[in-house]
Each structure stands twice: as structure tokens, then as C-alpha cells.
Write a structure and sequence with these properties.
The protein contains no helices and 11 strands. A hairpin with a 3-residue loop joins strand 9 and strand 10.
């Protein structure tokens, strides 16, 4: 059974930082492309960042130079470090794993507000 368990969301003031973590089980983690997506109310789910098995990263233009994605294949964990947060970053953030199939976590709420 595949499980992706996210943690680290919460409420933060504009300009602050949060670190999201996603731990996977039931998959060969090192072979999967891991990603973070987000969905704001009334909007479609969008890619935030991804990292493939070779460590190549992709970022949405809106988060470049502010967010960093990394992975630890020993711990089967992918991290999203989010700095200089803005109110428009408010959304539910989802972890994803992709190889032959797409798997999703349950999501974690990130709210950026003063």
C-alpha cells in the first residue's frame, strides 16, 4: 500500500518561512519523480516544484529563488523549503510521486497572512 504523508504546514506571516516534509512508503522511492503541487480555493492544482531520480529540479516561475525542493532517498523523504512567503502562496500543498503511476498525499494547509 502506497502512502505519502505530508507535514509542516501552518500559518505564517508574509516574509516568513515554512518547511514541508513528505515521507513515502510502499514505493521504490529513489526511482520516483517527487513533486509538490498546490491548490488554492477556486483554482486548479498547479505544480510548485519537482525533483527527479537524478536530482534534476523544476520550479514554477512564481516560486523560483524562494522555494527549494530536495530529497533524501535513504529516508524516502522529499522536502520543500519555502522562504519569503507571500499571501498568494496560501493553498493546500500536496506531495506527489510519479513513476508508472501517480500517487498523492492527503495535503497540508499553508496559510500566509498577517
Amino acid at each position: 500500500q502506497v502512502q505519502l504523508v505530508e507535514s509542516g504546514g501552518g500559518l505564517v506571516q508574509p516574509g516568513g518561512s515554512l518547511r514541508l516534509s513528505c515521507t513515502a512508503s510502499g514505493i521504490t522511492f529513489s526511482l520516483n519523480t517527487m513533486g509538490w503541487y498546490r491548490q488554492a480555493p477556486g483554482k486548479q492544482r498547479e505544480l510548485v516544484a519537482s525533483i527527479n531520480s537524478g536530482g534534476r529540479t523544476v520550479y514554477a516561475d512564481s516560486v523560483k529563488d524562494r522555494f527549494t525542493i530536495s530529497r533524501d532517498n535513504v529516508k524516502s523523504t522529499v522536502i520543500l523549503q519555502m522562504n519569503s512567503l507571500k499571501p498568494e502562496d496560501t493553498a493546500v500543498y500536496y506531495c506527489s510521486a510519479r513513476l508508472a503511476h501517480d500517487y498523492w498525499g492527503q495535503g497540508t494547509q499553508v496559510t500566509v497572512s498577517s
